[in-house]
Amino acid sequence: MTELQEVQITEERPLLPGQTPEMAKEAELAARILLDRGQTHSVETPYGSVTFTVYGTPKPKRPAILTYHDVGLNYKSCFQPLFQSGDMQEIIQNFVRVHVNAPGMEEGAPVYPVGYQYPSLDQLADTIPCILQYLNFSSIIGVGVGAGAYILSRYALNHQDTVEGLVLINIDPNAKGWMDWAAHKLTGLTSSIPEMILGHLFSQEELSGNSELIQKYRNIITHAPNIENIELYWNSYNNRRDLNFERGGDITLKCPVMLVVECNSKLDPTQTSFLKMADSGGQPQLTQPGKLTEAFKYFLQGMGYMASSCMTRLSRSRTASLTSAASIDGSRSRTRTLSQSSESGTLPSGTPGHTMEVSC
Ligand code: BEZ
C-alpha cells in the first residue's frame, strides 16, 4: 500500500517548491504509467505467501475489482486479454483492480519442495482478507474463473458484507462424486497433468480445433517451469468440498451474481443474472472478451456503477428502459438491470435473475 500511496494522484495536488506546472504534469504522467503497469505485492498469510498485482488507483466509495484465476494459469494468462480489451477500458478507469495469483503461480515462482502442504481452495479463500487488510480495501466485486470462481464464492459465503458482486465464469460448485473420481483416475492413467488441465480449461471441440489460442495455452502449460506447483493447485481443485449452495436456504450468495454458463439451479434467481454465451468454450474471457465486457457493463450498471452514457449504443438501447439509478459517482441503488432474454435474442425484459444472452 505504501507504494500505492506514494504515487497516488489527485487532480489538485499543490506544486512542490521549485516545481513548474509542466514538471508536475510530467511527474503525474510518470506515476500513471507506473500504476498502469501494475504494482506487485506479497503478503504473508497463514497459508503461505500470496502475490497480487494492483492496477489503477482506489476510487472513493467504490469496491475494488478483485480477480482470481483458474488452474494452469496466473492472473496475466487468465485475465490480461479481458482487461486489456478495448471496451473494458471504460469500465476499468472507474475501478482499482487487484489480481491475485494463487500461491506458486506467479511468474518466476520457485517450485515447492516435495511434500509441501498446498492450501485447499477453502484456505485460499481465507487468504483474501489478508490481501484486503493489507490494501485497506473494504469491499470488492469478484471476478473468478473455474477454481478462482469457486474460491471467490467461498470467500463471499464467509464474508458477505465485503462482496458487492460476483462474476463467476464456469464455476463447478460441487465436490467430485465417486463417478467423477473414477473418470479422473482413469484419465490420469493415460493423460499427463498438462493434458488433464487443458481438458479442464477448454472444451474437447476447442482442443481438437487446435486454434492459435489453444496452441499458445498448450505451450504455456506444457512448458511451465512451475508445473509441480500447478499440479498442487489442480489437486486442491479436485479435492474441493461442495459449496452447498441452496436456493432460498442459508448457504447462498447474497450479493448480485453474474453467472457465465452452467450452475443456474442452485442460486437465488432474484439475485442472479445468467449469461449464456453461444460457443463460449471454457475460457470466454480469452476467447470472447468483447461479449463478456458488454455483459459486465450491464451487470455493473445494475449495481448502479456505470452510467448508461458509458455503454455502447447497443447496450444503451437494450437497457434504457430498465435502469433507474445508475451513476458513476459511487452512489448507487440495488436496481437490477440484467435480465432475461428469450432464445430469439430479445434482451432485458426487466425481471432480474434469468438468462441474459449477448448475441454474436
Ligand atoms: C488491468 O488493467 O487490470 C490489467 C492489466 C494487465 C493484465 C491484467 C489486468
From TrEMBL:
<keyword id="KW-0879">Wnt signaling pathway</keyword>
<keyword id="KW-0524">Neurogenesis</keyword>
<comment type="function">
    <text>Contributes to the regulation of the Wnt signaling pathway. Down-regulates CTNNB1-mediated transcriptional activation of target genes, such as CCND1, and may thereby act as tumor suppressor. May be involved in dendritic cell and neuron differentiation.</text>
</comment>
<dbReference type="GO" id="GO:0007399">
    <property type="term" value="P:nervous system development"/>
</dbReference>
<comment type="function">
    <text>Contributes to the regulation of the Wnt signaling pathway. Down-regulates CTNNB1-mediated transcriptional activation of target genes. May be involved in neuron differentiation.</text>
</comment>
<keyword id="KW-0217">Developmental protein</keyword>
<dbReference type="GO" id="GO:0016055">
    <property type="term" value="P:Wnt signaling pathway"/>
</dbReference>
<dbReference type="GO" id="GO:0005737">
    <property type="term" value="C:cytoplasm"/>
</dbReference>
<keyword id="KW-0963">Cytoplasm</keyword>
<dbReference type="InterPro" id="IPR029058">
    <property type="entry name" value="AB_hydrolase_fold"/>
</dbReference>
<feature type="region of interest" description="Disordered">
    <location>
        <begin position="322"/>
        <end position="360"/>
    </location>
</feature>
<dbReference type="InterPro" id="IPR004142">
    <property type="entry name" value="NDRG"/>
</dbReference>
<dbReference type="Pfam" id="PF03096">
    <property type="entry name" value="Ndr"/>
</dbReference>
<keyword id="KW-0221">Differentiation</keyword>
<protein>
    <recommendedName>
        <fullName>Protein NDRG2</fullName>
    </recommendedName>
</protein>
<comment type="similarity">
    <text>Belongs to the NDRG family.</text>
</comment>
<dbReference type="GO" id="GO:0030426">
    <property type="term" value="C:growth cone"/>
</dbReference>
<feature type="region of interest" description="Disordered">
    <location>
        <begin position="1"/>
        <end position="20"/>
    </location>
</feature>
<dbReference type="GO" id="GO:0030154">
    <property type="term" value="P:cell differentiation"/>
</dbReference>
